[in-house]
Amino acid sequence: MSYRSVARRSVLTAGAGVATAMVADTARAAAAPSEDEYGAVEDGDCVATGMIWHDVADWGVEGRAFDDTASSYDRFPARAEETVSAQLWDLSRDSAGMLTRFRTDSPQVRVRYRLGRELITRSTMAATGSSGVDIYARDANSQERYVSTARPEHPWLKDDLSMNYGVIKDMVPGMHEFTMHFPLRNQVLRMEIGVEAGATFVPIAPRPEKPIVFYGTSIMHGSCASRPGMAIPALVGRRLGVPTVNLGFAGAGRMDEPVVDLLTELDAEVYVIDCLPNMHSRLVAERTEPLVHALNEAHPGTPILLVEDRTNQRAWLSPEVHDRHDGSRAELRAAYLRLRQAGVENLRYLEGDRLLGDDGEATTDGSHPSDLGMVRYAGAYERALRPMIR
Fold it and tell me: What is the tens place of the pLDDT at every residue in 301-331?
């Protein structure tokens, strides 16, 4: 199999042309959308009336790999609809991995956003992870610390899929820097941040550094984190202090040729390939080497990390599951060794047996990590990736 080279390169940081120092005095934000569009809401945390709203699209999000998208917070470019499967295209419209940053001295901060899917929760995944918004704040030691999560409401409780939620109130006076993580398993059509009239609001443009690009399955997508900030790319990004791109696709991370073509367009710090949970051994044998060669041809020398699948928690009791792990891992290891023998020196390998720990307590269903599993996964990734980033 051969992958065609794609000459076109996309800018990884949407909105990078927006100056970080752009300051908007919210008292003068006359062009902000009217309160009536979403309705005045009092939710017990904050009161939505009297807020000035800022559209995130005005300064951009980090974690969006392509600029030419059909909607502001899609993960694939619009042109991909013609090349990827319908399943992949639908999944690519989730906002997983995207975040935005801003500074404000407002005593309270709200978020209001419009979702594209009525399904806001899943059988093993909380609505806060699937369709909620996380907010983190930078403390005096410059560490990003969790603050709150916007909890989405069921659509039958509302007229539409618009959410309006107070994420923090009664803050310590002064300017604070915030990071807001977007929903993992839902499409975002619009995202706005509300602060009190008269407060200062400073949008922060996406960082220009090359990101770590994660390509994988539902586990990378974010299933089943309880909230967006607990997904693997988000955890790793905070720990290493680097931008990340989440290209995890639930049930559809199979090293497909059209996706590899899109990966070659991205100028990454590291490529992480974690697709084995969706692949059987034959596909692993067929697709691993062409993928690596395609990335190397497009970006010579950029590190590539091949990752085995996590061990399903019932593998010790199920010969079928155990044998599937053995077969796909054997093929990935064999491809890795052939590539290294062929002179591919920028290739690294991460074994999967201990990604979830060894106590059987780190999943929601035996397969998808809980928050504990996500933290363990991220720890393994941090150790593997730290020597690979500049």
Answer: 999 999 999 999 999 999 999 999 999 999 9
Q: Are the C-beta atoms of residues 244 and 233 closer than 8 Å to each other?
A: yes
Annotate 217-271 with DSSP letters as a single string.
SHHHHTTT-SSGGGSHHHHHHHHHT--EEEEE-TT--S--HHHHHHHTT---SEE
Measured distance CA(327)–CA(302) in Å, rounded: 28
How far is 228 from 325, CA to CA, in rounded Å? 28
Residues in the chain: 390
Distance CA 125, CA 206 (A): 29
Give the Cα separation of 215 and 279 in Å (integer): 13
Rounded to whole angstroms, the Cα distance separating 205 from 104 reads: 14
Select from 169, 160, 171 the least CA-distant residue to 120: 160
Residue 334, strand partner residues: none
In the numeric block, which tokens belong to residue 213? 């690009």
**Is the peptide bond between 46 and the residue preceding it cis, with omega within 30 degrees of 0?**
no
Sheet of 244-248: strands edge to edge?
244-248, 212-216, 270-274, 304-307, 347-350
For residue 192, give the nearest of 59, 91, 65, 95 by alpha carbon: 59
Tokens of 92: 């690519």
- 154 with 120: CB under 8 angstroms? yes
Closest by alpha carbon to 103, among 59, 69, 72, 154?
59
**pLDDT tens by residue, 257-278:** 999 999 999 999 999 999 999 9
